[in-house]
Design goal:
This protein is α+β, with helices and mostly antiparallel strands. 17% of the residues lie in helices and 32% in strands.
Length: 60
């Protein structure tokens, strides 16, 4: 799975996207909704860098 990439197509619209093997946008999520969903999720697996929506993140 590809890493999440932060883009800002225009001012005030930040999005996390994932790209497929050809570099086309596969998935696009609004940053605020994505971060809120990440906090609500209680996954059992640790997520790697750039994969915060795929599992738990370690708290520092």
């Amino acid at each position: 799975m590809s890493k999440r990439e932060l883009i800002e197509p225009h001012d005030g619209d930040k999005r996390y996207i994932r790209r497929d093997d050809q570099g086309r946008i596969k998935e696009s999520v609004d940053v605020r909704k994505s971060l809120a969903a990440d906090q609500r999720q209680h996954a059992k697996n640790d997520a790697g860098r750039g994969q915060g929506d795929k599992g738990d993140r370690q708290k520092h």
